[in-house]
């Protein structure tokens, strides 16, 4: 994922907070608790306290935040003629959402059926018959609730927009107001800190403080986000906003819709969270373990250190063949080597291997 920033002045890069974006991620955590193991206590307590009517309405619209994170949660980035800043309260954010024109609102709300053309833009399903037909056809594959919602949204955007606002307001009253009251202090402090890093140490340091998954190519004027998703957007004219979230990990969300201000929604750092492994490193490790001989060698190396000669004798192959397999495992960071006298001993790095599952899940969900 790439964001062009050539010539973008630092003052056009803004760190802030958004109650609506945080509500969206809280709703996602309630819908997909498996993505967020550190939030199980909050999810269990909040789900148990929901009134049945509100729980039903949340379920009715959960495709807006369960599998895709709709841009309606960051409307400040799409409203024309504003300073592109989120509100300080949920009510302010919802007022900004009301200011989003129907075409942008509908396109954002239908992202769950238009994800394949998200980065390319295209004609609005409100005005283009072919786009409307494609949206409804894709919704049909998702289920009857999605078809009904899509048809209502296309036929009468105003009523659906009012329904969604009331849903968010009821979520605020039921559970989110107290959640935001606790989270906003930490989020505001994080945004202030990143702003100071940007001001005093520069863009590269600020992006590094946001996430190890962000890398800056200052010469090429490009910010890259290490995600399996692919996309490109331009921040040179609109600027860029970065929003911290307490609910986000392991997701690192990038709003890159055409003609919207680019937004990066990043999880605030917590010491107990692992640093993200790069997608390339994850691929390298999985490819290294895919070979049956290396798998068998790992079985030995997990139990005790071995020399190259011992591994060759155990597996009936030559020492140079063992060395080639060990080189692949070492390059992937899976094997450590130490010398004992005239012997070189190899061992599996159990800490790295134990994290492969969580690294894989974090990588594909990021």
Description:
The protein is an alpha/beta fold. The chain has 16 helices and ten strands. The model has no long low-confidence stretch (mean pLDDT 89).
Biggest sheet statistics: 4 strands, mixed
The total of helices stands at 16
Shape field? elongated
DSSP strand count: 10
Helix and strand sequence: EEHHHHHHHHHHEEEEEEHHHHEEHH
What fraction strand?
5-15%
Amino- and carboxy-terminal Cα gap: 11 Å
Average per-residue pLDDT, rounded, comes to 89
Q: Provide the low-confidence segments as ranges.
A: none
Strand order of the largest sheet: 3-4-1-5
Helix content: 40-55%
Gyration radius from CA atoms, angstroms? 24 Å
Q: Output the structural class.
A: alpha/beta
Q: How would you sum up this structure in a few lines?
A:
By secondary structure, this protein is an alpha/beta fold.
